């Protein structure tokens, strides 16, 4: 948090000390579900697709930035948790590998995967043409964008010219969504949106609660979680819009892409995928078919 005072209900999140779950309609305040990844078993067909150098190593190196609760965050011991973390661990289990999570800044994960320092990235990545130049996307979940504002205020995401809007650095909301809205404002002769960038999602929410920003923009599960964790000091601003697939990222053209797709599809087929989403209350974005580079092909 860039201000000295942190709203108490979010302080634990900012310090990565509070676990929680989110429901896409009525989020719960706290309590993280028990991990399902340990019960996931190897899929021999998927494991056969793993490149030899990864199979011989025996571990799957997974890049993530655990600052985006409830998708990826940390528990009291400092270990990454969240439903996206559990899905990534499940992929490793399906491939007969042990998951090794590499904590990194969000905007360093794709270069790390493209450069071979990590095998995959699991950090709520939304497809963009720029990202797709470096990596392939194994699509596994659909999330929309959801704005939030202080409870009792009236903020319209389609009429936000001149407002201050908080986003997490390097997210789709930072690089694409809010800038596009701001450009449209300028083109219409209206004042631009003042985009405020923060390193963590907890800081983004605090900026709105403390009055530094008029609204925040984030992926729908993340915004709903933030609303719950502030004790309803925040409210949804408008409806969810611009639904797009999340993708686990793999180096462009890597044989590992097909293996990750097969592993996730095996989890969908045996029910372990849905069990994880159910446990975290984010089932609404679940899919039946795991695809590769769906946004590019759609």
TrEMBL record:
Keyword Signal: yes
Keyword Signal applies: yes
Keywords of the record: Signal
InterPro entries linked to this entry: Solute-binding_3/MltF_N
Domain Solute-binding protein family 3/N-terminal: 59-284
Pfam families in UniProt: SBP_bac_3
Entry protein name: ABC transporter substrate-binding protein
Taxonomy of the source species: Bacteria, Bacillati, Actinomycetota, Actinomycetes, Micrococcales
């Amino acid at each position: 948090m860039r201000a000295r005072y942190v709203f108490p209900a979010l302080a634990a999140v900012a310090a990565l000390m509070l676990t929680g779950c989110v429901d896409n309609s009525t989020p719960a305040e706290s309590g993280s579900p028990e991990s399902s990844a340990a019960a996931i078993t190897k899929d021999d067909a998927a494991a056969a697709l793993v490149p030899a150098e990864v199979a011989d190593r025996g571990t799957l190196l997974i890049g993530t930035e655990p600052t985006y609760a409830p998708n990826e965050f940390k528990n009291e011991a400092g270990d990454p948790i969240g439903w996206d973390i559990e899905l990534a661990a499940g992929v490793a289990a399906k491939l007969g590998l042990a998951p090794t999570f590499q904590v990194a800044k969000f905007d360093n994960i794709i270069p790390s995967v493209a450069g071979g320092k990590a095998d995959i990235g699991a950090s709520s990545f939304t497809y963009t043409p720029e990202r797709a130049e470096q990596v392939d996307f194994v699509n596994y979940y659909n999330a929309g964008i959801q704005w939030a504002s202080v409870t009792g205020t009236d903020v319209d995401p389609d009429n936000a010219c001149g407002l201050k809007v908080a986003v997490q650095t390097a997210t789709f909301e930072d690089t694409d969504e809010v800038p596009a809205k701001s450009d449209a404002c300028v083109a219409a002769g209206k004042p631009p949106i003042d985009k405020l960038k923060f390193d963590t999602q907890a800081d983004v929410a605090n900026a709105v609660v403390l009055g530094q920003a008029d609204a925040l923009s984030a992926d729908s599960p993340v915004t709903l979680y933030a609303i719950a964790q502030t004790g309803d000091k925040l409210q949804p601003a408008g409806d969810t819009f611009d639904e797009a697939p999340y993708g686990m990222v793999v180096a462009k053209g890597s044989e590992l892409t097909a293996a990750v797709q097969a592993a996730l599809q095996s989890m969908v087929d045996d029910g372990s995928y849905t069990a994880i989403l159910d446990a975290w209350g984010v089932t609404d974005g679940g899919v039946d078919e795991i695809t590769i580079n769906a946004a590019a092909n759609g």
